[in-house]
Amino acid sequence: MSILSRLFKQKIAPTNTAAGMVELRSGFSPFSGAAYENAIFRGAVDTIAKHTAKLKPRTTPTVQRLDKLLQIEPNPYITAYDLLYKAATAYFCDNNAFILIHRDDSENVTALYNLTPASVEFLQSGDKMYCKFLFRDGENVIIPYSDIIHLRRHFAKNELLGTDNAALFPALETAHAQTEGIQAAIKNGVTIRGVMRFTGVLHDDKLKALKERFVNEYLKMSNSGGVIALDDKMEYTPITSSAVIVDTAQLSAIQNQIYAYLNISDRIVTGQYNEDEFAAFYESVIEPLALQMSLEFTRKIFTPRERAFGREIIFGGERLEFSSAKTRIELLRQLLPYGLLTINESRRILSLPEVPDGDKRLQSLNYVNAAKIEEYQEIEGDENDNANTNM
Questions:
Q1: Per the domain annotation, does 22 fall within a domain?
Q2: Facing residues of 111 across strands?
Q3: In a domain, 199, yes or no
């Protein structure tokens, strides 16, 4: 919080409070309070966040200053990849992600910062809304909502916030209980090897000494003969340890339930997907988030006047990077004759560097402009008539 503390200028609290305190934390105490603590959930969210962070934002029409901020360094401490990764992680863990827009005295955007508050309160003052953030170090900050990029998931029950992940808690509790049970069974299976019983009544110190002597003499590797000699004062009953059998079907069912909640598959998480599987993942998970970010970044960074003139921020993904060489070559073979791609666009599809004169478009002479097709046919007809006259 020390980095952001230097940026926040405490605003005068609005007089009219519009909403009460809304906790972003799940409050799931039996499972340490956070879905992110579950390995399956974290692995899936990490996969989604990594692919989201590869999206490339761009302004249109181009604003080079903003493009550099969005694509390379949103603030002096992180990269654009880090900004999107952290935003996507908060988006799926808390179903709310907040990014602070920092502006200079001329209202130009100079930096973007991820915010990770413990809670947020929405305040109303006239026609303006503010966010009162409470951070985990106890600091409170009030920021205009117009300076906050707010991404929300499961936006259903609350007027301003995404709904929490309570629907997933039973699956997470079950997964946690399974893990704890397996660990306890394994520990118990290797710690207790047998039971010693003495016919007489012994003091605790004497009992402990006899047990340690028995272990040292008979249960060590040095007892190569494997024979234990006992008199009628002592009885030893060995306990046979059985291997812990993990119910893989049940574990798989819980894993699939968590993956289904995030709309992801195990093949995506493990990186074993094919083109069709990744296309489905992109369209169902990454693309909706990219669209939401495009709209929210546009409306919060640009003024209404700038938006009226067509300014916007678009988050796009080079989906063809995940296509096979065969698919890329076939795409170029189909599109190049129509002049739909420039040389550099074609080279990017093949993961090749751009060339200085690469903005040219190539088109086959077999195709003609539809608006000039009649003119083309008239010229061709005149040439045929001239040829026939000369004959």
A1: yes
A2: 102
A3: no
3-class SS at 157? coil
What is the chain's percent helix, strand, coil content, to nearest 5?
Answer: 50, 15, 35
Distances (CA, A) of 108 to 17, 102, 285, 289, 338: 29, 8, 32, 26, 41
Closest CA to 90 of 300, 361, 293: 293
Closest CA to 313 of 66, 82, 16, 2: 66
Average pLDDT over residues 51-72: 93
Of the residues 165, 194, 221, the one at which a domain ends: 165
**What residue type is 76 in one-letter code?**
P
| Residue 385 maps to a domain | yes
Structure tokens belonging to residue 322:
């995940």
- CA distances to 196, 364, 367, 369, 385 from 375, in Å: 106, 19, 14, 10, 15
Answer whether residue 104 is part of any domain.
Answer: yes
pLDDT tens, residue by residue, 66-84: 999 999 999 999 999 999 9
Mean pLDDT of 10-29: 40
Looking at 136, 165, 194, the residue that finishes a domain is 165
DSSP, collapsed to helix, strand or coil, labels residue 13 as coil
Cα 51 off chain centre by: 7
Domain that holds residue 81: 2-165
Q: Are strands 312-316 and 109-115 parallel, antiparallel or unpaired?
A: unpaired
Q: pTM for the full model?
A: 0.72
Q: Across-strand partners of 152?
A: 96
Query: How many structural domains are present in the chain?
Result: 2
